[in-house]
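Form 12-C: Joint structure prediction
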Amino acid sequence: EAGVTQSPTHLIKTRGQQATLRCSPISGHTSVYWYQQALGLGLQFLLWYDEGEERNRGNFPPRFSGRQFPNYSSELNVNALELEDSALYLCASSLGQGNYNEQFFGPGTRLTVL
Amino acid sequence: QQPVQSPQAVILREGEDAVINCSSSKALYSVHWYRQKHGEAPVFLMILLKGGEQKGHDKISASFNEKKQQSSLYLTASQLSYSGTYFCGTEGGNDYKLSFGAGTTVTVRA
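Section 2 - Result
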């Protein structure tokens, strides 16, 4: 069974640009979560999508947005990139609503903002 | 609000035990534990729901004290494969939003 996949593996952008990160969940999983992992700061919750709807978001500005497609894959968009957006962005999927289901993480996209 | 993990780092010899603590300033609904090895994605270890239950995963176990708003992860008879950074994720209400601690780096040496 294929795991969670993310693309691209690495992304280099300059300040002010926009970045688009993609995630494909495990087959059968309807929930997708996005996390930011900056150096030394652990995992910061960004967004949660389930059945195509945004269910919850973390304490991030509106320039962080995303969507979930009918096939449950998801996209994270970061507009007006700032240097501090440089981080590893992890996507996770789970079977459905609720945290009683374990989250399976993808390998991440390393975003570097110059 | 982000839970606080302690210690930040611990170095063990194979066979030694260790405890990692996770504390929250607010009431907890559930606690999740993950391990991340360098350059890899975090891997799920276990979930504990309020009720003070204890769970185990091989020789790694955890407890959850909802009154104290804390959870502890116990590494027993550590193996080299236990090396990595351990994160606790806490849910403060029925909102399915996890807040993760900064992590505890565990190094197990032969």
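Section 3 - Comments
The radius of gyration of chain B is 13 Å. Chain B has a mean pLDDT of 89.
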